[in-house]
Amino acid sequence: MPKIVDHEQRRRELTEALWRVIAESGPEAVSIRTVAAEAGLSTGALRHYFQTREELLVFAMRLAEERVTERMIAHQSAQDPATTVVDQVAGLAEQLLPLDETRLAEYRAWEAAGMLGERDTDREHRWREQRRLYRRLVAGLARLPADDPSRPHPDADVEEWSEHLHTYVDGLALQLVVTPSVVGPEGVRARLRAFLVRVEAVLARPDA
């Protein structure tokens, strides 16, 4: 009888193989051949799921997004009510920083966006989704609602600091990848919290 293939299981195996290639060698090493070899499959078998290298890279980026979102949801669910707003915001923002091997692999998957260029049709959508997150985080620091974070926040200061925080976190992530021996995970965590404390103070309202 012909062998029955569990496609969901095979896809999970390919996902883990793709992630290992990215974690060990970066997105530039991703190819049909390298991922197939890592998964112990033929290139023909892999092409049943991904036809091109570009499809693999797009899948890697989407997988990174899913993992970050899952961690943020878990982080919020486990939040202690006594946790300060700054620590709550920092804990969420840290999910976007390459502070450990898992998040470093995710960050390196994001590097694939630059490699795809115009072929990456989702890049503007990803940027907008990140800006939505930063609007919610900064609105939280200001003790203000963020009813529609897909649009500029009605409070001009919240909108301005959302842009600043977005840029700052991106910069911390890049420094952590390029010069990890200089900044390091603990240094990045400390810098992030110091920045958030400053933002909270700037946005403080008399009635807060």
Explain what you see.
By secondary structure, the protein is mainly alpha-helical. It folds into 2 domains: 1-51, Homeodomain-like (Arc Repressor Mutant, subunit A, Orthogonal Bundle), CATH 1.10.10.60; 63-202, Tetracycline Repressor, domain 2 (Orthogonal Bundle), CATH 1.10.357. It has helices at 7-25, 32-39, 43-46, 53-77, 85-93, 101-110, 112-116, 123-141, 156-178, 184-202. Helix 1 packs across helix 6, helix 8 (123-141) crosses helix 9 (156-178) and helix 9 (156-178) packs antiparallel against helix 10. 26% of the residues are buried. The mean pLDDT is 89.
Structure summarized in a few sentences:
By secondary structure, the protein is mainly α.
